[in-house]
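Tutorial handout. Part one gives the primary structure; part two gives the three-dimensional structure as tokens.
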Amino acid sequence: MAKNISEKTVQDLEFTTVLTHVAEFCISELGKEKTLAITPIDEREELLQELNLVNEYVSSFINENRIPNHGFENISQEIFTLNIENSFLEAAAFLKITTVSETVNELLKFFKKFETYFPTIHQISQEIEFTNVIIEAISKIITSYGEVSNNASPILKEIRKEIAKIRGKIGESFTRDLSKYAAAGYLDNIRESVVDNHRVLAVMAMHRRKIKGNFLGSSKSGSIVYIAPQATLNYDRELQNLMYEEQQEVTKILKQLAATIRPFVPLLHSYLKYLTHLDVIAAKAKYARSTNSLLPAITTEKKINFINAYHPILWKNNQSKNRETIPQSITLNEQQQIIVISGPNAGGKSITLKTIGLLQVMLQSGLLIPVDERSETYIFDTILTDIGDNQSIENQLSTYSYRLKNMRYFLRKCNKNTLFLIDEFGTGSDPELGGALAEIFLEEFYSKKAFGIITTHYSNLKVLANELEHVTNANMQFNERTLEPLYKLFIGQAGSSFTFEVAQKNGIPYSLINKAKKRVETEKIRLDKTISKLQKERNRLQINSDNLERQKTKGQEHIDRLAEKELKVQDKLSGFQELYDSNQKMPSIGRKVNELLNNYFQTNNKKEFNTNLQKWIAAEKTKHLKKTPVKEKTKEEKRKDKRDIIKKQEVVKQIEKEVLQKVVEVRKEKKIEEKKEATARANYAYKINDRVRLIDGNAVGTIDKIEKKNVFINYGFFTTKAKLEQIELVEKAKK
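Part two.
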């Protein structure tokens, strides 16, 4: 837990519910565990990095470079076992390690390739070492099916050859006995069965003594007995010995492999940590996409400006019930340091307060939040909350005693980098005495320049908020006719509690309400009535203001459309003018050319004609340049062009370098393949009917005869003699 955001604050704001929703998007158990353990981050740099990681992952959903699958199996137990000296893992466990290594390598290559798209993820990926040593070491020993390869050692290869032979002999022996005893009429119609992984003969009970072998059971009715033939049993004992030897050799090989991989245990730990972190980042990103969340601007100036902010838990619940969630916009800054929200119960005061607190805690825990993209906020050192009726039965504390203890904690922790959220401020005691103490607390928070939001019904706190320069009253809007909440926050005016109006709406007799009014101090009723009247008036003004705003918007749209049409008309007129000027110019050009040609025909002086033509063209060019002068590039533009050319040349050089490296690698691989082929050719034992050709020739023939180092090749029309080293195989003889 972050040192200045307590467990109580996290519980008050239901942050753990959000984490539960985020964890649903994880694809691994380790990712879920880490997600559910998320706490607010203390270090600013670490927090900004985490937010950028999530933001970059969100961007991968909308660009073409989708991040590869990062699914992985938990290899914690395998790493633990591997770390024990002289221990070994099963073949399938090594295969899990290979899969994890391949996944990490694929991700490292991807983030290196697309560093410009994912700079922060690439930065954390660089901390992981890229290596194929683990993969290559395991792939030499373990097959893709999770078994030890025959080629893992010469001894294992030989043992498995013997096992295959013995199994063949067991099969032949059993088939022979099966045919023999079936012909003698000793077997039942089913002929054979399997008992304890052994093939057995299904013998009729009356003939059981006529067959040599081991009795391994009988049918339920007793009419059939199952016997393993004696010859098969002899081979079976030999097979068991070989299988024991195979197991011993496999264990030895796996221990050697474990010893090879053991130095990489710290790297495997880092693989697991990296993939788990990436799973958490991906879950946060998927949750952000599902709730339309984003990263607001993080400012160094102390302020909160949440525009169209949603409470994500409320939004999710309302969405499942097809209900609309009303967004809230709220601002806290040096001029509006504390907001006091008042108004009737069930109007949305607590939800507004919780929305701001939850979004701030989410952001400071590395989660994106559902707000408008123009929103911005600050990173607070401390977030304090006092929400709900918290009676402590264990400590025998009343609600008020508990809240006083909480206020003592607030006063000790509160400073200029604090955000505090208090629901139903001052309640739990005598209204007048509790209200007076609440005033003192509010003034103390104000003097410490802390930012905060409180909700209250106390009139004295509304009055105090009006008197303090940087404290603002606010209320949740209510429909005064239907007395239904509108769930919209209005900044700048205190709200009426609508106590008697709500009581009347809920069926309390009017006579009782009147009696209650008489018992309340006249001044309080007048104040509440005045506030109620002002709120109704403000609602009417708000409606008019909204209508005027809509009309203004429509008028502006109409003006914009007219301006757009005017631009189109101007463009057309300009085009017509150019066309007209061009058409007017054509006869003038024709007349001038005609004049020059007539002069040439009369004088037949080619030199004079060329001189006059060039002068005329130069004059026309000068006129054209005056009308449309060529814009010279500035020094900065020239320098930019030069930098771009250099950059392109560097990219080309880099590509050339990479291609050359690839060519060298391909050539090396080709040479290795050629050596392998040459070795295979040299070691090949030629047979009759093999199709071959001379190394320097193209014609293909068939080997008729082989004598020591000479072969006789039949080409159809003739036969020729050649040495073995002069020929190469085209196709082996068909069996």
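Part three, for discussion. The chain has five domains: 7-148+260-290, 151-246, 297-516, 550-602, 684-731. The longest strand covers residues 187-195.
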